[in-house]
Every structure is written in structure tokens, then in C-alpha cells.
Design brief:
With 262 residues, the chain is an alpha/beta fold. The chain contains twelve helices and ten strands. The chain has a single domain, classed as P-loop containing nucleotide triphosphate hydrolases (Rossmann fold, 3-Layer(aba) Sandwich). It is globular, with a radius of gyration of 18 Å.
């Protein structure tokens, strides 16, 4: 199963992504956790130490590797570089989880076909179109990193929103773009919900079949996220998103590691 998670900045995409990564790994799946957000904080949320993160910089910062694979130089470069070995060679292993730190795509104005973006696009293509158990991509806001081809490799697009008009409006824009690009299934997850009024606001903003679930604001999770060593927050993390995980299992028809129901 390939899951892409996106939404307006600050809505809790990374927390949801990290919780789902942990839950899929606990079910015995080999999980590729991909941090494609410019903030690259998925590793920290998963409990990876600073030393481990420093030992494996984001792919976007690996200039020599990008130059080697894209042949960049003299204004010419390969649009579809070979990256199959990158997934394992440059990932951090965490108990059945392979964390791949991509970093954010470069903003190159109207001409976005720079070597760095070509390299990252090739990595996304390999992940979404390859035969991997579970891939969870923590994207920044928007879905410009997907092409029409790779969008169809996404089994489920999760759009995270807070109970505010601005956040909901952003979610609806992403929802529309996802459908236009051919993402097979798109669902909305309401996050940081505190009151019944906020629940009703989100329920009235989307059709029942569009909402995968609502997650309440979790004070304990927020407090633990401020700790230098976040590894003690794992149980709180997985519990906070367990209802969304259950909904995904039903939506995707996943029974157990490596198996899908017919």
C-alpha cells in the first residue's frame, strides 16, 4: 500500500505519518517512511537520534550523488536517473522501518526540471511504482511533487486539516487536484479537534464518505513532542492515530503483512 500524506503546514501531517509508520511496522510490514517535507522532521518524530540523522543527510543535500546519477553539468542532465539502490543504501533502518530523508523539492519557478528535482522525482517514482510492502510519504503542503503517472501509484491520499476555514479550504484544493491527477482514493483526516462545534464544522465541510476520521487534540502528545528525546512518546503516538490506521486497513483491504484481500 502506498499512502501520501499532505495538507496545509502545521496541521499535524508528520505526527499522523509517524504513527501510521509505527502501526504498519508492528503488523509485520516492511515500511518505507519517506520524509519529503522541507522541515524534514519525520525522523525526529519516529524517535531517531540526532546522531543517526546527522549520519544520513537528506537526499536533496547530497550534491555529488545527484550529479553522479543525473550527469548534471553543462546545462544537460538525465530526467529519469537510476535510483533503485538509493532506497536501501541511503535509508536509516529502524525495526522494520526504512526512513528515507528526501528533503523538500527545489522551487525553480516555471522551470522546475532542475537536476535535484529530477533526482527526487525518480526516487518518488521508484517508491510509488515499485513492489514495496508499505510506503508512507510525508509531503509538504500541496502535491506538486506528484506527476500524473506517479499519482496513480498512490493507493490512498490522506489530506490532513484542522477545524479552521483556511485549513479546510486548502484541503479542498488538494482534494480537487488529487482527483484530477488520478489518485485512486482520497480521504480527509480532521486533526487537533477540541470541541463538538469543531467536529460539526468538519463534518459539515466534507461529505461523510470523504472523511476518514477525526483526531482530537492530544495534550500529552504535544507535551512529549517538546522533549529532547521523543522515543518515550511512541505509545502515545500510536494510540492517538489508531482509529485512522483501522480505517485505512478497512479501506485498503489489507489483512496482514504483504497480503491483500481479493
Amino acid at each position: 500500500m502506498k499512502i501520501a500524506i499532505t495538507g496545509k503546514g502545521g496541521v499535524g501531517k508528520t505526527t499522523l505519518a509517524a504513527g501510521l509508520v509505527k502501526l504498519f511496522a508492528r503488523r509485520g510490514f516492511q515500511v518505507y517512511a519517506v520524509d519529503a517535507d522541507p522541515d524534514i522532521s519525520l525522523g525526529t518524530t519516529l524517535g531517531v537520534t540526532e546522531e543517526e540523522l546527522k549520519s544520513q543527510p537528506p537526499l536533496i543535500e547530497m550534491k555529488e550523488l545527484i550529479k553522479e546519477r543525473t550527469g548534471a553539468g553543462g546545462g544537460f542532465y538525465i530526467l529519469n536517473p537510476q535510483v533503485d539502490d538509493v532506497l536501501d543504501k541511503y535509508s536509516i533502518d529502524i525495526d522494520g522501518i526504512k526512513l528515507l530523508r528526501m528533503g523538500g523539492f527545489k522551487n525553480a519557478g516555471s522551470s522546475c526540471y532542475c537536476p535535484e528535482n529530477a533526482f527526487l522525482n525518480a526516487v518518488v517514482n521508484s517508491l510509488l511504482l515499485g513492489k514495496h510492502d508499505v510506503v508512507i510519504l510525508d509531503f509538504g503542503a500541496g502535491i506538486e511533487h506528484l506527476t500524473r503517472g506517479t499519482a496513480r501509484g498512490v493507493d490512498l491520499m490522506l489530506i490532513v486539516t484542522e477545524p479552521t476555514k483556511v485549513s479546510v479550504d486548502t484541503a479542498k484544493v488538494i482534494q480537487k487536484l488529487s482527483q484530477e491527477m488520478g489518485v485512486p482514493k482520497t480521504k480527509v483526516v480532521g486533526n487537533k479537534v477540541r470541541t463538538e462545534k469543531e467536529k460539526n464544522f468538519l463534518r459539515s465541510s466534507f461529505k461523510p464518505e470523504e472523511l476518514l476520521g477525526l483526531l482530537e487534540y492530544n495534550e500529552e502528545l504535544w507535551e512529549q513532542s517538546m522533549l529532547e528525546d521523543p522515543r518515550g512518546m511512541e505509545e502515545v503516538l500510536v494510540h492517538s492515530v489508531s482509529s485512522i490506521f483501522d480505517g485505512i486497513m478497512k479501506e485498503g483491504g489489507v489483512e496482514r503483512a504483504g497480503k491483500k484481500s481479493s
